[in-house]
Design a protein that fits this description.
With 511 residues, this protein is of the alpha+beta class. It has twelve helices and 29 strands. The chain has a six-stranded antiparallel beta barrel. Strands 10-11-12-15-14-13 form a six-stranded antiparallel barrel. Strands 17, 18, 19, 20, 21 and 22 form a six-stranded antiparallel sheet that branches. A hairpin with a 2-residue loop joins strand 28 and strand 29.
Length: 511
Amino acid sequence: MPDHNPDHRHAWEGAFVLPKAGSKSKLKAGLLASVAAAALFAATVHSIRAEAPQLKSATALLAAATIPAPASGFADLVASVKPAVVSVRVKADMAPQLMSDDDVGRPFEKFFKDFGGRGAMPKGNGPHELVQGQGSGFFVSADGYIVTNHHVVDKAVKVEIVTDTGATLEAKVIGGDAKTDLALLKVDGRADFPFVELADGKPRVGEWVVAMGNPFGLGGTVTAGIVSAHGRNIGAGPYDDFLQIDAPVNKGNSGGPTFNTKGEVVGVNTAIFSPSGGSVGIAFAVPASTVKAVVDQLRSNGRVERGWLGVQVQAMTPEIADSLGLDNASGALVAEAQADSPAAKAGLKSGDVIRSLGSARIEDGRDLARKVAGIGPNASVEVGFVRDGKELKVTLKLGTLKDDSVRKAKLSDNADAGPPVLGLTIAPAAKVEGAGDKGLAVLGVNANSKAAEIGFQEGDVILKAGNKEISRPEDFKAAMSEAKAAGKKNVLVLMKRGTALSHLAVPVAIG
């Protein structure tokens, strides 16, 4: 695409490129468009002022109206909420960084390649450089609070919003949260901005939705589609819980709202799935429930504090569940309780399966991370877990999540290891230099064996089998025999790779 504005040599859309495992397809955080400050309709606003001392949201006004069926279009819906959607323009300070012409995966560099920008990222130790970006947002209060994506305003030195009427207003960043990719802005000086409300519940799969934004700087645009899934994990962060919206949302729309037919915001547009660089009609939005929780904290504190349990977890598989004697694979399997964490102090340990947090059921490790974070720090909570086939409970006080804790709490890479067959060369770790004093060191893995399929690698150390510490190959065989005698198809193995711990389910039939 040619550059139609030679004066803006560094214009960008801030599209983050997220490679999809095993393919060249990419998830791009597309900057989406508009949120703003103007007036719903002059006549409507005047009538509201006459009737009540406080402005009503566009959502509340729309609730009393009859929403047309999709066959009749979404004109009334769009007319009511569009004044609350704005374009967000950003000047960001980009620090110098070493990079070659072959570098890929950097958000700004990718834009230059896609859109023909003639500028280049600063190299070496050159000066910082201001670049321009554009996204979207929407007013959530009459006094000027605006929601957008964190990546739209990250490193911003100046932020402006352009309203539906074309007015340009200066905004300040109240706070941002990179883990959910949300940010809160504020425009001062007025208390009568048109605004919209966040939905209380999740939309149903198959429900009509309307996405608004400002792709490619063309001005406010509207697209319609349906919700096709909840709880999508696209690898963007530890708390991924995206709505999948099947609508032609484009880059340039990041931070824009997706509405249900009641005029409520059900999600904040954040990313698109794009094998080719353009929209294929699959977009992802942060659900309103997450937006509410994050925005409330940003407004109060300018930052988000999350609860911390302190466990490294991995997803359950049917094979692992069988090895533990469980009838289903729900819950989060503890690979390790971090030292001095709330979990360790409460007695949780490797091999425990966490199945509830308070009254809430835990589906998997990611569900546990979201729920713990949502409860917040310093809260007392009852944790229900299974150990050696027994259901136990413990009450503990959550800590405060820190950045390094997020890294440790990510799901193990071996969480989804498949069913296997041994082909290992093993020896007592104490006899292998650098392997430590405990367990069995893996000296070799037959490339054609099921041990390789399971995920064993040379250099791994097997610490436990069947929840028992092992130090000899005979211990490993005995654990498999015991599991087989107990009617289990798999034996649970605790493995150490480097400093990381994880579990694997090994079929007893191969012992």
